[in-house]
Amino acid sequence: MYNEADTRAKLIDPAIHSRGWTEDLIRREQTAGEIQIVEGRPRRRKGKIDYTLRIKVGFNTQPIAVALIEAKAENYPPNYGLEQAKCYAKCQKFNIPFVFSSNGHLFVEFNKFTGLTSNPKRMNEFPTPENLRARYEQAMGFSLGSEQAKPLLIPYTGGEATRRYYQDAAIRAVLEKIAIGGKRALLALATGSGKTFIAVHLLKKLDEAGQLRRALFLCDRDELRRQGLSNFQGIFGSNAAEVFLNSEGRNNARNARIHVATYQTLNVDNEEADANFLIMHYPENYFSHIVIDECHRSAWGKWSQVLLRNDKAIQIGLTATPRQLEITEKTKEADEDRKITADNIKHFGEPVYEYTMTQGIEDGYLAACDIQRGRVNLDDTGISIEDIIKRNPTDAITGLPVTAEQIKERYERTEYEGKILLPDRVIAMCQDLFSYLIESGRPEQKTIIFCARDRHADDVAIQMNNLYVEWCRKNNKEPAYPYAFKCTAASGGSDYLPEFRGSNKHHFIATTVDLLSTGVDVPCVRNIVFFKYVQSAIAFHQMVGRGTRIDEPSGKMMFTVYDYTNATRLFGQDFITIRKEPTTGPKPPPPPPEHPILVDGFEVVISDEGRYILSEVDGKPTPVTVEEYKERIAAKILQEYHTLQQFTGCWIEPQDRRRLIDSLIASGLSPTVLQKVEDLDEYDQFDILAELAFGLLARTREQRADSFTYKNDSWLKSLPDNAALTLVAIANQFKIAGTDSLENPHIFNVPDIVNAGGLNALRNVGEPREVLFQTKQRIFAV
């Protein structure tokens, strides 16, 4: 009985190939791999692999995923994997309408459009690409050959290695809605999952399809504008520009086709704003497309003028707040959350695609989240007026003492540090947090502490600095300065962001109110701390989102939420922390030091926390994550070869292949390094590179050699028996040693090839060198 892998390779693959599913129509979608915490250290599991079936309309068009196939060992019923696959379809994980489960002999199908599951059928009845295309088009209501569907067919700039499966699913979901005539679409994706990437490539596909006239990317705050502009200019170049009034009194972006602006620049950042810049510089319906980044952040009235003045534009909203978020609390903030959610749904409609923080953590694209409850319980049961007076309260604004007469009978916990300052409470919470940092390794960890107001942020920064200096004194260490700093709008906090983001010698603890709660990209943040009472679920998810990004070069694969105000109740009931109960007994020994590995002269560092390769970036040796390394290789290949056919033609010509590999290595990119780091020794480098650049289904050398036989069954049967046996023996040499073995001048001296008939057998059917070249072409054919 075949196991699951053999069932796919030896039963399912030949069967669906005979139905027209060639390798360029099958995509292996592999996640990064969930991060698990073992004895306090993060380790990656192997990523999950799913296979999507895709349809292709033209020679050089983007294949469109329409189905997923779940393979199970041949001794299982054919529907054994169906429930998992149906879940993918229903939750839109891959944004595909058809899912199949098969044991290699029979298959069953679930159709999301109809909600029906088929009876088991023989594999010779498996739907062809033409059949699924027709069913997809009929259900969607448009033809893939139509003008409105054209953006779906535009390939990714930089190749398929640049996108993750859910980003592709989100982009297709929006383009599908546009293709059926929709003018508005909402995407809900967790912070750190690449919403800007999605926006850039959405607009790029629309642009390449000739459907984009001018686009506006609207965000909140200058930091987000800078980040967005960098991403857009990476794809659109000078056609993307920042909106502001230049020295000539004119709009800096007037000649660009992609305008990147903030609410503040357009004068639409509050309900009293007059939209002066928007009205003066942009006539009505100036834009054909508008993308509102973080559309949950501002209530509808604050930026609706942009949409209302461009009511004919395609309007796309991006949000990091989960749609299924339950907002049950009865507070002013919760009411505002409900209003924002209702306004967004009313205008954009239900999200066409959603990718939550939980999904991101499970896939390994977002850092694992650990929750620690604060050990300070000064206010667990509320504090009476007498208790407050004992704590020497002062007015949070004037600093003057507050008398009993000035205090209501009881303050809610949410008012602490907002209206009344309790100095010993600040001290106790800071001491507890500092102890946590020491227990988890060291105090020098990038940390954001959310405080109630500006004065509270001052007090916390001072206290954290004092604790740190005292700790350094006791441990005979030189203190880093500044260790803790206030980062609020009132203090010009944006000026400190480069140091907080980049330095590993100072600026470790940022105390803020809400400046760091949204959009700011600081991947190295390891701790999110709540000293502030949070009533808004939307704001809470934004704050937590500051810690979700993975930073492999620094070893950051997880982050910790230190919760002193029960803020994590806003995660919802489904969220599970990775925190485990402490175990008794001696602590495990420290891990051995990490040693770099040299491959082809490249330095590779592999640890449980992550993997990165020292590569040359802008002339400097720089640690590059494996994911980014793949993207660079794909982009380099696509600079020279625009289609899979061109790349294959290069590969089977020894001189051209050597030139390509030399070019990659000269650019600081080695296929051998990637092969070793990703544990892909069973794959030929052809499959590794073709998957990165063109999304080809990667096959092991054994699978490719075996597929040579069933793909070329008719051709082999047309040859004399000894010639056919010789060619199969040659393909088996590829199984052993890959492409280079097919070009070995001594290949006809290999015993298996000699015994099959060898050189003489090939002479009976043509020039041996030409027959060998044809064999090589067929081995790499899709």
Class by alpha and beta content? alpha/beta
Per CATH, the class of the largest domain reads Alpha Beta
Query: What is the number of helices?
Result: 27
CATH superfamily placement of the largest domain = P-loop containing nucleotide triphosphate hydrolases
- The CATH topology annotation of the largest domain reads as Rossmann fold
Nearest-angstrom radius of gyration?
30 Å
Distance separating the two termini: 28 Å
Q: Please summarize the sheet with the most strands.
A: 7 strands, mixed
Helical fraction: 25-40%
Summed up, the domain count is: 5
Mean pLDDT: 86
What percentage of amino acids are in beta strands? 15-25%
The general outline is globular
Query: Could you name the ranges where pLDDT drops below 50 across 5 or more consecutive residues?
Result: 580-595
What does it look like?
The structure is a single chain. The chain is of the alpha/beta class and 782 residues long. The protein has 5 domains: 4-140, tt1808, chain A; 152-362, Rossmann fold, CATH 3.40.50; 367-571, Rossmann fold, CATH 3.40.50.300; 602-699, no CATH class; 702-780, no CATH class. The chain contains 27 helices and 28 strands. Strands 1, 4, 5, 6, 7, 8 and 9 form a 7-stranded mixed sheet that branches. A 7-stranded parallel sheet has the order 12-13-11-14-15-10-16, sandwiched between helices. The chain has a 6-stranded parallel sheet with strand order 17-24-23-20-22-21. Helix 15 links the parallel strand 23 (527-530) and strand 24 (558-563). Helix 4 (165-179) packs across helix 5 and helix 21 packs antiparallel against helix 23 (721-737). It is globular. The two termini are 28 Å apart. The model is unreliable at 580-595 (pLDDT under 50).
